[in-house]
Write a structure and sequence with these properties.
With 294 residues, the protein is an alpha/beta fold. It has eleven helices and twelve strands. The radius of gyration is 19 Å and the shape is globular. Bound molecules: NADPH dihydro-nicotinamide-adenine-dinucleotide phosphate.
Length: 294
């Protein structure tokens, strides 16, 4: 029975792996939160990998506070670069396959066509810079590692745009949302399923960077409108420009990912983003039905 280790088990993606583990009892799972494995502690990574000997490790642990990272570069670096590298080194030492996650924020977002893995990177903020350095550090330690760049991740768990919109839609009569940042939302549960398919594929599939997001394209405004429409929320939505909603970290204006490589290599079928939104809203039924004003 294959042994699967997941780090960052209390985050959005980690929680989705916990659900996936229930559906896949044919695999032996160990899903650890930060208290059980702090990836910033190299000896802890080494000890867990050596002790448990997983076949596959999904690194869902990350410093994801994008705006906070602007004033806490050392903190973001410690997890997203050093931690990722330490985990990769521990995987290399025990022959474990690693799948690590990165972000659309490694791109500047100046293109207006879907971004390929080989396109120029130019992160606009500290978070993106640490995630890019993390990719490089992981591949340096373990060239066979799979790196998945994803975007606009949401789920029924933790802090994310969908859950924020549901809460704000309940609280406010009117909401302003930016419409000049365009990308593709990604449901974390589908990302977990796709990740497992990748990691269990023949090793010949090869390490390197793969882009993954849901199909289709929208702005944050469109995303919010779809959430409200599907959840029956009638809050008035007003489109605004990013300049009207300044944040400490700059976001890419265009972060639609080209997924040809991941689809062709692993035979993945990727759903449209609206399909993911509908499913996650159904998972949150008690919350979304409270929101319904019908
Ligand atoms: P979350 O922030 O929901 O989860 C990250 C988890 O990592 C948290 O539980 C966090 O714990 C934990 N963590 C932080 N530091 C450490 C550490 N030193 N050791 C162990 N665990 C730690 O992130 P997501 O699930 O949304 O993201 C998963 C991956 O996808 C990340 O690599 C992220 O960069 C990437 N990604 C996410 C996007 C998004 O929109 N969310 C978009 C693109 C990429 P704690 O809460 O205690 O800090």
């Amino acid at each position: 029975m294959k042994r699967i280790l997941v780090t960052g088990g209390d985050g959005q993606l980690g929680q989705c792996f916990r659900q996936l583990a229930l559906a896949r009892p044919d695999l032996r799972w160990k899903i650890v939160g930060r208290t059980e494995l702090d990836i910033a502690r190299p000896e802890a990574c080494r000890a867990l990998l050596a002790d448990w000997q997983p076949d596959v490790c999904f690194n869902a642990a990350a410093y994801t506070a994008v705006d906070k990272a602007e004033s806490d570069e050392a903190g973001a670096w410690q997890v997203n670069v050093d931690g990722a590298a330490q985990l990769a080194a521990a995987c290399a030492a025990t022959g474990c396959r690693l799948l690590h996650y990165s972000t659309d924020y490694v791109y500047a977002g100046h293109y207006n066509r879907p971004l390929r893995e080989t396109d120029e990177t130019d992160p606009q903020g500290v978070y993106g810079a640490t995630k890019l350095a993390g990719e490089q550090a992981v591949l340096q330690q373990l060239p066979s590692a799979l790196i998945v760049r994803t975007s606009w991740v949401y789920s029924a768990y933790g802090h994310n745009f969908l859950r924020s919109m549901l809460r704000l839609g309940r609280e406010r009569a009117q909401l302003r949302v930016v419409f000049d940042q365009v990308g593709s939302p990604t449901a974390a549960d589908d990302l977990a399923v796709a990740s497992l398919q990748m990691a269990l594929a023949p090793v010949a599939a090869g390490g390197g960077i793969y882009n993954y997001s849901h199909e289709g394209v929208c702005s944050w405004y469109d995303f919010a409108a779809a959430i409200f429409e599907m959840a029956g929320i009638r809050t008035e939505l007003l489109p605004i420009e990013s300049a009207d909603f300044p944040t400490p970290a700059r976001r890419p204006n265009f972060s639609v990912l080209n997924k040809t490589k991941i689809k062709e290599t692993f035979g993945l079928q990727i759903p449209h983003w609206r399909t993911g939104v509908r499913r996650v809203l159904n998972q949150l039924e008690p919350v979304s039905s409270n929101n319904s004003q019908t």
